[in-house]
Amino acid sequence: MAAHQLDSRAVQARGISGDAREGVSSFLEKRPARFPDRVSADMPDFFPWWADRPITPLQTPREEAR
Length: 66
Fold this sequence. Notes:
Blueprint lengths: L1 H14 L2 H11 L32 H5 L1
């Protein structure tokens, strides 16, 4: 579920980005794209996601029964 939640946030963030708008506009206008977003400055607010919570190992069914 955590991966699904993170993926949903990422899809939403990229969908409203300047790169998404430029990609659609350049395609419709039949011109080369000039993507405005930069990795160095335009990462989503939840990046880095791994700092939010520790990674815990999954339990096997045998361990859960204990």
